[in-house]
# Entry
Amino acid sequence: MHKEQMARWHHDHTFGQDQKQSGEKRTLIVVGLTLIMMVWEIAAGLIYGSMALLADGLHMGSHATALGIAAFAYAYARKNASSSRFSFGTGKVNALGGFTGAVLLAGFALFMVIESIDRFIHPVTISFNGAIFVAIIGLIVNGVSAWILGDHHDHSHAHQEDDSHHSHDHHDHNRRAAYFHVLADALTSVLAIVALLAGKYAGWNWMDPAMGIVGAILITRWSWGLLKATSSVLLDQQQTGIQQGVKRAVECGDTRVSDLHVWSIGPNLYAAIVAVVTHDPQPPGHYRDRIQTDNASLVHVTVEVHTCPMHCELSQDG
# Structure
């Protein structure tokens, strides 16, 4: 068979991953803001003796690293999208970046707990006025960063964009990890301000390390949720909702789905392997077209058709 004839059945596996994603540029902007604020807060924490402020600065430094990983994941996925080394494109790099960010979040939360306990045991003198000022500036920067990475951009243009694009952003685990990192920074800034105000006006210096522990607990919760979401993608967990959609599209009359696997290969991108059993078989393309018409997020569908003898009974459950 000639190459020209084969081209009719050939397709690539980039699935749009070669295009710059909406979260990539935003992540790069936030990396710059985070690095600047990190240097200022660490220096201020050391000068003013505030554990809460130092923890916030170190936290921002760790998040600058995590955000750098997120930015690298976007660039790597885009650059290698058409590489034949990846069976279904580079979409899972997004989930891998998110998973790495979640692990770093958990590690930084543990570091905050250790440092806070040390400050309980070995308290230091805090220069409240300078520390409060820097913490407020940090909160503003973190708020701006969270706004840049948030979903408001997509909502404001919802009337111009289709549902698949919105869903794509919703499943962008890499961007979600970056968002949680800056949200965690904003949280630690708020806790630092509360602790410093309590120490200055009520003499509750113990609030400074206590708030570090509270922040670590909340950050650990975010990390756990992100780990669950990204690990399900990396481990090819079955997508039950889409499975039901595939069955609805295929099963009619005496046609049944005997085997079905649906898994994520990128943000709102899914692949499926479907085995069909029927008395009156049609070409695989017939079933594939029906499946993808009703399930737009299924970008790669493989169909296997089996003929059931006339005496064979096909149950509704397949």
About this structure: The radius of gyration is 25 Å.
